[in-house]
Amino acid sequence: MHIHILGICGTFMGGLAALAREAGHRVTGCDAGVYPPMSDQLQALGIELIEGFDADQMALAPDMFVVGNVVSRSRLPDGSPKFPLMEAILDAGAPYTSGPQWLAEHVLQGRHVLAVAGTHGKTTTTAMLSWILEANGLNPGFLVGGVPMNFGVSARLGGGDAVRSAQVKEAPAQRAGDTEQSAQPPRHPLFVIEADEYDTAFFDKRSKFVHYRPRTAILNNLEFDHADIFDDLKAIERQFHHLLRTVPGSGRVVVNGLEESLDRVLHQGLWSEVRSFGAAVSDFTAVGEPHAFDVLERGQTVARVEWALTGVHNQLNALAAIAAAQHVGVAPDAAAHALGRFENVRRRMEVRGTAARPGGAITVYDDFAHHPTAIHTTLDGLRRRLDQELTPGGRILAVFEPRSNTMKLGTMKSQLPWSLQAADLAFCHTGGLDWDAAEALQPMGERAHVARSIDELVAQVVAAARDGDHVVCMSNGGFGGIHARLLSALGTV
Fold this sequence. Notes:
The chain is α/β, with parallel strands linked by helices. 30% of the residues lie in helices and 22% in strands. The chain folds into three domains: 2-99, 3-Layer(aba) Sandwich (Rossmann fold); 110-171 and 181-339, 3-Layer(aba) Sandwich (UDP-N-acetylmuramoyl-L-alanine:D-glutamate ligase), CATH 3.40.1190.10; 350-491, Protein-Tyrosine Phosphatase, Chain A. Strand 4 (64-67), helix 3 (84-92) and strand 5 form a beta-alpha-beta unit. The radius of gyration is 23 Å and the shape is globular.
């Protein structure tokens, strides 16, 4: 089969392209605004990329057009279609489908799907869970919205029959009076997927994750986001409940016990086993610092995690992954041992380099954080690490751009000062915003700076930086290659 993917450089669609290519299909695709890491992965796979959405791509005559949710029926100011290829597909009556639908029909059918949903932490937790299963011999397939460094690719089909290895231990026997199920070995090949609540396509406004039909579902957290498609938090909660409706009675729902929004989701109806984590009274809890902690299952210590990751959010991600892995037969101690070798995901506090300085190198990080809560947890995690392990009192310079659709709308601008509390200085790229970032950041006083161009932003950071600083660049886009530009400029001062 030849598929042509519209919007191929998005993290989800790029991963789908990799899976289709591995399965033996011919894959081509088009997009605009191409940037790493997905463009690098596609190029390495030898997938032909076409810039733009021109109608002349109809000449490729694929068996199926797979349409990403970046595509719309929008028109430009002159009245011409923004996506002429899509208009040509509709006019010709050519076959088309959405990415999630194609994935469900051609990859997920007949597999035990483990889906990771939540406003934050989906990518990291999906990567953690995939690595736990891999390290314990289960050879899972996966699709991650980033590039896990343990694997080097964002997606793969995985092995055939899921056979338990000697490392995978039996779950504890059921206690008297306990009606919940013990973890059982998987009967089907495993597939771990990042389950996004964003809409599927312009012709299918359901959340992507309703297509996946998981047997194991993680609900990591839930707060308001995607203001461009959801009116309020209640609307997102409804979509999360639609996900729960697809989990079978033999399935498991792993839920963050700290989230009132998820509690409301569960109370709309539940038909599966539940395992909670995070809250004081939960099935899985943690005792200790985020970089070294004991894992307790119903009050009994069952494992210990020691790793390089920071932040309470990653501690919670680990608990979720451990609880989900148990459902397919991986004991918590085996899961924790695997997490000790977890290398995180590209663009999740990834050190892009250091600029040598006489009084100590300046470290530049790349992070995907763009929602205020994600920015807050990222910076708070670094602050704790600096104070506890590295350089107590070390300065953090937060460099960010409000690039997501929600942030561009200004829906959460009032939360920015709170999200940047752990930073000593904040630098905001304001290009393309219709709201006043300087006004929104005014509560931060002289700690906040704004710039309309990347050149101006780089100049501001270089002028303010001191030896030994930590510069965290946060965006869900390419950010104009700011990381390399900063490293070059900071190293020549």
